[in-house]
Write a structure and sequence with these properties.
Layout lengths: L5 E2 L2 E2 L6 H7 L3 H12 L15 E2 L3 H25 L7 H25 L19 H22 L7 H28 L21 H8 L7 E2 L6
Helix pairs in contact: 2-4, 2-6, 3-4, 3-5, 5-6, 5-7
C-alpha cells in the first residue's frame, strides 16, 4: 500500500478540497502559523530522502512533528484498509464509525504534512501482513494497539516540544488531536468489551493516561512500518 489516502486510484474524500478539509477541521489559521515557523527551521531538516540509517525525522520541533506525522500515516493507512475491506459481519453502525475514524486520521495526517511542508518525511510504506482484515478480532485488536499507542505517544512527546510561543501552538494542536485519539481508543475498547473504555491498563489510579517515549512507541509501531526510519534524532 504505497498511497493509503487513495482507494482504487480515487481520493478517499473526492468531494472535499484540501483547503476546505483543513478549514472543516478548524486548523486553517493554526496551519499557517505552524507552516511558516517550520519552514524557517534548520535547513538540514528539508532533506528527507532515506539515508543509510533510514528516513530522517529532522531535529527539534520538526522531529517531534514528523514523529506524530509518521504515526498518523500508519493509522490512516490502517483504517483506510479496514473500510475498503470490511471484516465478516461488520455492522452498518461499525462501518460508519470506522469511516469517521478513517477521516479523522486522514485529517491528522494531512495537517502534519501541510504544516511541515518541505520538512515533512516521505510517505511511508506500511506492512499489515500480520493483520487478518477479514476477521473482527484481528482488526479490533490492532485498532486497540494503534489507538492506545497513539494516545501514549502524544502524551509522551509533549514534553519535548520547545517552550516557545510557537511550541505552545504545537502543544495546543497536539492536545486537540490526542483528545480525538482517546475517543477512538474508548470506542474500540467498547467494541471489544462493552464498558471497558477506560481500563486500568491505560488509566492509572490518579486518572492519568499512559505515557510512552518515542523509543517505546517505535519499538511497537515499527513492525507495521516497512519504510526504514532513522530515530536517532528523536528526543531521548
Amino acid at each position: 500500500m504505497k498511497n493509503p489516502s487513495r482507494d482504487g486510484g480515487k481520493e478517499v474524500m473526492p468531494n472535499m478540497q484540501r483547503r476546505n478539509f483543513l478549514k472543516y477541521l478548524g486548523m486553517g489559521s493554526a496551519l499557517v502559523t505552524a507552516a511558516t515557523v517550520v519552514a524557517s527551521c534548520n535547513k538540514n531538516d528539508d532533506d528527507n530522502n532515506p539515508g543509510s540509517n533510514g528516513v530522517s525525522l529532522g531535529t527539534g520541533d520538526v522531529a517531534v512533528l514528523n514523529y506524530a506525522y509518521a504515526l498518523e500515516q500508519l493509522e490512516a493507512a490502517f483504517y483506510t484498509q479496514v473500510v475498503n475491506s470490511p471484516y465478516a459481519g461488520m455492522t452498518s453502525t461499525e462501518l460508519d464509525f470506522f469511516q469517521n475514524i478513517r477521516d479523522h486520521e486522514i485529517g491528522h495526517r494531512e495537517f502534519f504534512k501541510a504544516a511541515l511542508s518541505s520538512s515533512a518525511i516521505i510517505g511511508l510504506e506500511v506492512n499489515f501482513s500480520a493483520i487478518d482484515f477479514s476477521k473482527r478480532d484481528s482488526v479490533l485488536a490492532t485498532a486497540k494497539t494503534f489507538e492506545d499507542l497513539g494516545v501514549s505517544a502524544y502524551n509522551g512527546a509533549a514534553q519535548y516540544i520547545s517552550k516557545t510561543p510557537t511550541g505552545l501552538v504545537y502543544l495546543g494542536l497536539a492536545g486537540k488531536i490526542v483528545s480525538v485519539e482517546a475517543r477512538h481508543a474508548a470506542y474500540i475498547r467498547d467494541l471489544i468489551s462493552p464498558g471497558s473504555f477506560a481500563d486500568s491498563d491505560v488509566i492509572d489510579a490518579n486518572g492519568l493516561d499512559m505515557v510512552r517515549t518515542p523509543a517505546q512507541v517505535f519499538a511497537m509501531a515499527g513492525a507495521f512500518i516497512k519504510t526504514k526510519i532513522d530515530t536517532n534524532t528523536l528526543p531521548k
